[in-house]
Specification:
The structure is a single chain. α4 crosses α5. A four-stranded mixed beta sheet has the order 1-2-3-4. It folds into two domains: 101 residues; 54 residues, no CATH class. The protein contains six helices and four strands. The chain has 173 residues and is α+β, with helices and mostly antiparallel strands. The longest helix has 21 residues.
C-alpha cells in the first residue's frame, strides 16, 4: 500500500471504528512509514467565564488525563486491530483547549550523513546546552524547522562568544 492509500484507508477506518462520543468531530489521522497517530479534540471542560488561564490550562490537562485513563483498554484494542489491518503502530493523542498531548508515540532512529557545516549546527546546540547530544540536537532542529533557525543560531553563537570573552577577561589561576 502506498502512503497516500494508507492515509485514506486509515482516516476512513478510524472515523468508522472510534466511538462517536470520544471526540468533538472526527479524528485527525497522521500516517508515516512506521506509525499512525490518531488525535481528536475533546469537549472543553465547563468553567466559569471568569476562569483564569491557569484554571483553563489545568482543566484541559485534567480532561486529557481522564480521556487517556478512561479509554486505555479500548484504545489498545483498537490499536491492535489497526496494526493488524494497516501494518503500522498506532499512537493516540488528544487536544483540549490550547493543549495537545500525544501518548507513547514511536521514536524511530534515523540515519543521516551530515557535512561539516551541518555538524557544526548540531555541535553549537550541544555546546550551548540546548541539547544533550547530536541526536537530541537533530531532533530539536527538525521540530523547529518551520521557524527561523538561522537567526536564532546566530544569536546563540554571538551569546556564546560573549560568554567566552567574559571568561577570558576574568582572573586566571
Amino acid at each position: 500500500m502506498t502512503t497516500d492509500h494508507i492515509d485514506e484507508v486509515a482516516r476512513g477506518w478510524f472515523s468508522g471504528r472510534l466511538p462517536s462520543d470520544w471526540f468533538v468531530g472526527g479524528p485527525e489521522v497522521s500516517v508515516d512509514r512506521e506509525e499512525i497517530i490518531v488525535t481528536g479534540v475533546l469537549a472543553a471542560p465547563d468553567l466559569p467565564e471568569n476562569a483564569t488561564d491557569q484554571e483553563r490550562a489545568a482543566a484541559s490537562a485534567g480532561r486529557i488525563k481522564a480521556f487517556r485513563e478512561d479509554t486505555r483498554a479500548q484504545r489498545i484494542e483498537i490499536a491492535v486491530e489497526a496494526q493488524h489491518r494497516l501494518g503500522h503502530k498506532v499512537a493516540w493523542g488528544a487536544t483540549c483547549g490550547d493543549r495537545t498531548e500525544v501518548f507513547t508515540s514511536v521514536s524511530v532512529p534515523v540515519m543521516t550523513r551530515l557535512r561539516q557545516r551541518d555538524r557544526l549546527v548540531l555541535d553549537t546546540l550541544v555546546d550551548a546546552g540546548v541539547a544533550r547530544s547530536r541526536s537530541d540536537a537533530l531532533a530539536w532542529c527538525v521540530r523547529l524547522v518551520g521557524k527561523n533557525a538561522d537567526d536564532w543560531l546566530g544569536q546563540l553563537r554571538d551569546a556564546m562568544r560573549t560568554v567566552e570573552q567574559v571568561r577570558e577577561a576574568g582572573p586566571t589561576q
